[in-house]
Amino acid sequence: MITRREMIASSAAFAVAPLFARGARPIKTPLMLDTKRMAIWDGPGLRTTFFVKGCPLKCIWCHNPESLKVESEWARFKHLCRNCAKCTMDEATCPTRALKLYGKAMSIDDIVAKALEDKPFYDKSGGGVTLSGGEPLFFWEWAAELFAAFKKVDLHTCLDTSLYAPKAAIDAMLPVTDMWLADYKAQDDEKHKKYTGVSNVVIKRNLERLVSEKVKLEVRCLSVPGCTDGEDLVNRHKYLKSLGIADSAVVDLEYYDYARSKYLALGMPDTMPRANR
Amino acid sequence: MDIINRGIAVVALFLSVSAFAAFDDDLPYLKSKWRSDVTDKSTGLGVEELKVKAEKIAAAGKGVKPWCLVKAEIFKMVCEEMSVGFSPHDAFPAFSCWSKKNRVLTKLINERIAEVDSTYCPDAKVKSKEVKGSILRHDYDHAVPDWDRILKLGFPGIKAEIDASKATNDYSKAMRIVADAMLNNVKRLVKIAEDSKDANNPVIKAEIAALKNLAKAPPKTAYEVMLFQLLFFYYGEHLDHLQVRSLGNWDRLLKPYYEADLKSGRSTREEFKNLVKHFWWQWGSLDNWWGQPVYIGGTKADGTTEYNEVSRIVLEVVDEVHVPTPKLQMKIASNTPDDILSKALDMARRHRSIVFCGEEPMAKAMAAMGFSAEEARTLDIWGCYEFQPRAAANTTLPCIINMPRIMVDLLEKARIGELKAATFEDFEKEFHQELERRLEISLDVVRAYEANMDEFIPALVHSLSIKSCVDEGKNAIGNGMKYNLSVILQAGSGTAVDALAAVKEIVYERKEMTLAELGQVMADDWKGHDELRLRMRASRRKWGNNEPLTNKLKRDLYRVFGAAVNGKANSRGGKFFASGHSIDFFYIMGRHTKATPDGRMKGEEFSKNISPAPGADREGPTALVASINAIDTRDIPGDIILDMMIHPSTIQGEKGLMAMKVLIDRYFAAGGCAMHFNVFSAEELRDAQEHPERYENLQVRMCGWNVRWNDLSKKLQDAYILRAEGVLQP
Question: Is residue A227 part of a domain?
């Protein structure tokens, strides 16, 4: 009998082709999802993290479901909405901010200017900027351009990525990325395909490339109960060790299912597995 | 003599072990000590009987003797007749005048103020009403004794110095009576303790030994210093009716005594720490709403830090006793040891009562007020986080300007057709002019109120601690100090700025209504305009987001405020200065102030200190700190305080500590003097749940990422609240 999780994972909504492999990405410049200032967990020091919208993966546990589509989309948070019946679909006029538009255009100049607002904090703490998502490498030409602009103003750069990207993307990012924060979601490729919609073959290849390039790297392993916990996590650790990645550069992340309200607000099916607590 | 000293040393060692080894056993007594009368009634009178006697002395002296002599006689009577008590559970004595709300002199001083006002400045009160919604008051409760001096003198030395003073005026006569009364009270305590049923208890025995020494010499041990401080505090605050607004630079003061105790074998580190716990609990028990300030740290003349082992013990005690008062202030500089700063920040995120004060920005503010670098290096922090030259200054806080009320009154004038402003710039100019007008009246009223302070608050105990006052027979809270400062506070400057930005948007940019119509909406407390109110409340154009318009409005507001106040002469031979401090008037005034265009409803609180209005800072802590760069902190040198609201989960672990260090470093670099980390409690989270619009920037940490509080479902918010309460359910 097919489980609910398997049903969702295999549904049309999650049937994703590796678009970059065919060279047919829909857009080159992403919409921006959010800016998080004083981020302390996205690389060294105090940082500003910029989130792009759009991801080639469709992880069923995604905690940023608003980052999946490349197009902008509206969310309505029911617990904030007063049902005033005067909704203008204008975020600025929503009196309770129940209405949220995910995905806004932002030029590279604007992003750099925003990043520079907190430069004194980076300088004091050894911080900088982090690009996250979504998947930044889904827009790698743009990301490389952005990072080059960051480097021009002497900002430390971190790239938070699934590493699901072509070789050209890695080539482009290597000269402008000071630190890589790589997710490694499952060792078992069948599980990887089932829960993220894509194979891990490309990811492993890129990971091995980064190791060979001796980049500053942190690998993050999320352990999702009933999906990628237990043996798969052990195997991931073994694999990473076999690549010569130090234990100190491997961070295990505990899974929480706190993003359910965002699935509801976006009108998306809630695919999040249940957390242990 | 040697034998006697050795004997005292042995007794003191015995005291340390026996009295403080079982601190938890003493806690029930300590908790009740300053919340009820625990004295032995056979030793003297209770507070009500003392009040009756005091009124008789006052009545007999009225029109016959100067008030300072009458007050001194009342002080002497109370010292001689109040009941006292000793307990084997406490290293310090108890007194019948225990209640801060029921002091012997309160009624008499208030009557005296009324008399002085009607005699010298009968019009001042009427004039003060023109400064609508603001507070103009007789403030005298902000004195810091010269602890360095009086610890060297002790009670006998204090008496000897005033007796030897060449001053012969009535004030010096009154000081002599008080110095004599304090010393005699110490002797009386010895006698009562020796006669008490517990006289053979080792704790009481040691207490008697310490009191005996204080009756004949300055304090010699750390225990005697604490006993001396408690007695001086009690004489000053409870009997002489003047708050002792700091226990001083405590780690620096105690260090030589602590080290001497260790060296002589009188005490160990652990015993000293337990004694400090007893000492801390005196104020924990007293629980004055105004809190008991004490500060640690600083920089020596050679540039090295004042932090020492006593500082570390103080931090451990503050962490372990976890009482809201004494409230600890810490001087922070680049030389502050990292272990001290890390420990203190960790405590702050666990709700311990600590404020972080930057030595460098305080020095800048002091320079703007005309003080020397040496006066800045050795400044006393007092009150909430105010500062002044040590042993050379007094400060009154006689006026708190209600900034949002200016907006309310201007919009009311617009509503009734008395104010028109073609452009926003015209409106802002009206606001500034009205602020200037109110400040001019306020300074005049304060000058009148403060011209005759000796007539109602001769600060006799406090004056005995100040050398110049002893030498010249002057009142240390009047004009007796080198610097007699009057600092003008403000409440709601952030709210006022947000309201100005809202007027700009509603009336001049979007042209949604006229100024008069907006005045009507405010008069109606937003009735029928709830959506506009919520929109304005949710607006991101608010002070604290490092946003250009509100940055400029705030800078200009403080420029006008500072120019109207700073350096102006007061009536005590000193100067006025402007401050960013608001005490708790952001809340008190808010309750009585009508709606403002920033989305605030009638009765809601204002922004406090220089901080944003509740929920207004949506760009996060770094933007808030960066906003401070927009203002010229020299405009408000009296004090520059920021309240950083932050959730504990966003500053977890070592990285969280790093973030806190960076935030205070950058804040101090921007010129801010004091910073609070208001780490959210469960109660605040409940409020956040009920009023999500006020907490848009509140973030909680998941695992490797943060989410906004408002993005969570109610169920998950409940889980966080439970976590905050420490009762997470399985």
Answer: yes
Kindly give the residue spans of alpha helices, DSSP state H, lying in B242-358: 250-264, 269-286, 309-321, 338-348
Q: What range defines the domain where residue A146 resides?
A: 4-69+107-266
Chain B contact present for A223, CB below 8 A: no
Nearest in space to B424 (alpha carbons), one of B524, B475, B500: B500
A50, β-bridge pairs: A35, A131
* Rg of chain B in Å (alpha carbons): 27
Please name the residue of chain B whose CA is at the shortest distance from the CA of residue A40.
B655
Output phi, psi for B622, to 5 deg. Answer: -70, -40
- Which residues on A lie below 8 Å from B546 (Cβ)? 117
Q: pLDDT band at A170, cuts 50/70/90?
A: very high
**CA-CA-CA-CA torsion sign (B475, B481, B486, B487):** negative
- pLDDT tier at B725, thresholds 50, 70, 90: low
CA distance linking residue B237 with residue B710, whole number of Å: 46
3-class state of residue B711 by DSSP: helix
Cβ contact, residue pair A38, B716, below 8 Å: no
ipTM, two decimals, is: 0.85
Mind giving me the DSSP string for B530-571? HHHHHHHHH-S-STTS--HHHHHHHHHHHHHHHHHHTT-B-T
pLDDT value for B722: 61
**Euclidean distance between the first and the last CA atom of chain B, given in angstroms as a whole number:** 66
Q: What is the pLDDT of residue B708?
A: 65
CA distance A26 to A91: 26
User: Per the CB < 8 Å rule, is A37 touching B712?
Assistant: no
Q: What is the pLDDT of residues B448-463, one digit of tens each?
A: 999 999 999 999 999 9
**Does A113 contact chain B (CB < 8 Å)?**
no
Any domain includes A100 = no
Q: Assess B514–A contact: CB distance below 8 Å, yes or no.
A: no
Predicted confidence (pLDDT) per residue in B385-422, tens digit: 999 999 999 999 999 999 999 999 999 999 999 999 99
**CB atoms B705 and A41 under 8 Å:** yes
Side-chain-side CA neighbours of residue A269 (13 Å): 14
Distance from CA of B45 to the nearest CA of A (A): 60
Question: Which structural domain, as residue segments, surrounds residue B710?
Answer: 681-730
Task: Count how many domains chain B has.
Answer: 1
**Does residue A85 lie in a domain region?**
no
* Chain A nearest C-alpha distance from B614 (Å): 15
A93 lies in some domain: no
Give one word for B576, left, alpha or beta, with left for phi > 0 and alpha for psi -120 to 50: beta
Number of Cα atoms under 13 Å in the Cβ half of residue B464: 34
Per-residue pLDDT averaged across A74-91, rounded?
Answer: 78
